[in-house]
Records
---
Amino acid sequence: LSIYGYSIYSVKQENFLDDFEVPATTTEALRQLSQNFLMDERITDKIVKAAGKIHNHFVCEVGPGPGSITRSILKKAPKKLVVVEKDARFLPTLELLKEASGSHVDMVIEIGDIRSYNFEVGFEKAPSSDWFGAPPPIHLIGNLPFSVSTNLIIRWLEAISEKKSAWSFGRTSMTLTFQKEVAERIVAPVTHKQRCRLSVMCQMWCDVDHKFTIPGKAFVPKPDVDVGVVTLNPLKYPLVNLPFKMVEKVLRTFFNTRQKLCNKGADRLFPEEMRGELGPKLFSLADVNYRVRPFEITTEEYARICFAYKLICEEHPEVEDYNFRATKKTVAV
Ligand code: SAM
C-alpha cells in the first residue's frame, strides 16, 4: 500500500491472518479527513493492549483506514469487531481483512460517519451489564482524526451521562488517540496549566488515563504534533447526575474567564440585575471559595457548583434560559 508515494507496508500476519497480504494500491491520505496512518505494528499492538482484555469481547474500531490497528485487534480474536470508516476507498482493504479473519471473528464493516453510528444495532447481541457491576465486554478503540475526536468525546460523554448508545449496555470502555495537548487536557488535575472545561467534563463522568505518547514521526504522513493514547472508563458513580447541557453551560461560563477570579465568570450565569444576589449565593450554596481561578477548582467542587446552579434555577426559572453571549450579541446589534 502506498500513501503520498510512500511505500507503507506489505503485511504478514500471525495465526489466522498468516496468509493475508495487503495488495499494492495507491491511496492518497485525505487531509480533510485528517488521515495520518500508523504503520508500526508494535505501536498498534500497544494501543490495543491499552484497551485491556478484548479476547471474545465486542469491539468497535473508529476510523480503521487501511487497517493497521484493525489487524492488532483481530490478532486478539474478539467475538465481534465492527469497524466504522468514513472513507469508502478503504473498503476493499478492509474486506480483505474480513476475509482473512474468516470464521475466527465476526467482522462487520460500516462505511459511514461514527457520529451517526447506532451502537445499539451493532452490539445487539452483546450482553448488557449492570451500571454498578463489572463493565460489559464492549470496547471502543480508535485512532481518530483530531478534528473529530474532541467533538466525539463530548458527544460520548453526553451519551454516558444518559446511559444511552454504547453505554446502554453498561460502562463501555474507550481507548482513543488525541493530539498530545488534548490528551494532557483530558487528564489535567486541579491547578495544572492544561486544566480546562474538557478536563472537568471528562473527569466528572470517567476515570481517565493518558497511557502513552506516540511521536508524530510514527505516522504517515507525519502530523505536526505528537499523539496521546487515552483510556476513558465511565465511573460507577459520576460526580454529577444533572442534565449534561446544564453542566456544560456552567463549565463553559467559568472557563471563559480562565485567568480571572471565579466570581467574574460565575456572574455571567445570571441576568445582570440578579448578579449581586445570585453570584455569592452560588458559591455559598456550593461551599466553594470564589477567590480562586477556574483551573484551581476541583472536579468535586465543580459538581457542587452545578448542583447549586440547579437549585438556583429551580428558585428562579428565568436563570436557566439566560445566555450571556446572546445578551452580548443583542447589545452589539
Ligand atoms: N486507524 C488508522 C491508523 O491508525 O492508521 C487510520 C487513522 S486516521 C488518523 C483516521 C481515520 O478515520 C481515517 O481513515 C479517516 O478516513 C477516518 N475518519 C475520519 N472521520 C471519520 C468519521 N467521522 N467517522 C468514521 N471515520 C472517520
---
Amino acid sequence: DLSLFRRKFRGSILGVLTGDCLGSPYENEKLSSGSKLVLQKSFDKLEGPPFKAPVMQFTDDSAMTMSLAESLIEKKDLDLVDLAKKFVKSYYQEPQRGYGSGVVTVFQKLRGSKFSDVLLPAKEQFHGQGSFGNGAAMRVAPVALFCYNHYDNLREFAKKQSLITHTHKIGVDGAILQAIAIQQSIHIHPDDQLNVIDFVDELVNKMNFVEEDEEGLDLVEAQPYKSQLNLIKKLLQEEGEENPIDDKVIKNLGNDISGLRSVPTAIFCFLRAQKPIKGIKTDNPFRRAVQYAISLGGDTDTIGSMTGAIAGAFYGEEVISPNILQHLEASTDFKDLADDLFQVATKMEWNS
Ligand code: R7I
Ligand code: MG
Ligand code: MG
Ligand code: MG
C-alpha cells in the first residue's frame, strides 16, 4: 500500500522535526514535576486553537537530517563526498544551530582539506577513538526511509553515513540501531496492536549480529546495545507500577549525548507510549511518546527527535497535530523533503 508508506515517510521526517523543535528549549535540563507541568501546558497550547507566535527553531538534528535527505534525493545513492559537502555547507550557513562541540572540528578539517579524504577528520576525533556522540543516529531517518525495504543496504548505509563524523563503535552502532527501529516501524500497520516485546526481540536479534560483526569489541561490555535493549524489555514489563519509573529510565537507559545512552531511550519512549503514562495528558500516542521523551530531560531535542522519527514512521503523518506543525520552522519544507525521498526510494530497484 504505497499511500500508507508515503504517510509513514512524512510521519518519520516530520517526527524528526517535531521532537527537535519541541525538545530543544529543554536541552540539558533536569525536569522537575513542576517543569513537566509547564511542558504539558505548553504542548496543550501549541496543539490548541491557532495563535500567532514566532516559529520554534530546529537545531543540528533536523539540519543534518535535511542534508542527508537532500543528498540521497539528488544522487539517488549514498555519496559520501556530496554528503560531507552538504553537512559542511549547512553548518557554515547556520553555525548557531547547536552542533556538538567536537563535530565542528570535523567540519573545519573537511573544508580546510577541500574534502580530499572525507573519512579522515572523523577518525582523528577524540585522540583517534572517534566520537561516540549521538550525532550519527539523530540524522539517520532518511537512510532508513531510502532503504525501507532492504535490510542489508540499510545497515551498510547507516554505517557509512556515520563515518563522516562518527567512527567510534558506539556512535556508528547507535545510528544502525536507530535506522533499524525506524525500518521496523515502517513495516507494521498502525492499526495493528503493536507487540512491544516482539519489537524489542527483533531489535535484539539484529543488534546481536551488528555488534558481533563490528570491530572494536574491547569495551567493558562487548555488546552494549544488546544489553540496553534487554533492559528496555525489563522496564516495559515493570509498567503499571504505582511509582513513576522515570528515575530508573534515566539512570539505566540514560538521557545524554552519547549514542548508547540516548538511542535505546528513544526506542523505549516510543514503545512505552503505546499505553497511557502518568502525568502526560493526551490521547495522541505520538505526542505522548515525544512529550515523554522530552520530560526525561537531558538531551531533549535529540531524544525527542529520535523518538518522533520512530513513532512517526509507525503511525504516519496524520498522527502529528497540524496545529503543532504550524508552529515549527520549515515544516512544509520537511514535508516536501519526505515526499521527494518517497519518490526516489520507491523507484530504487532494491526496494521492490
Ligand atoms: O555527536 P554530535 O554530533 O553531537 C550531537 C549532540 C546532539 O545532542 C545535538 O542536539 C547537539 O546538541 O549535539 O557531536 P560530537 O561533538 O561528536 O559529540 C558530542 C559530545 O559528546 C562531544 O562534544 C563530547 O562532549 C562527547 N564525546 C566524547 N567525549 C569524550 N570522548 C563524544 N565522543 C567522545 C569521546 O570519544
Ligand atoms: Mg540539536
Ligand atoms: Mg546541544
Ligand atoms: Mg541534542
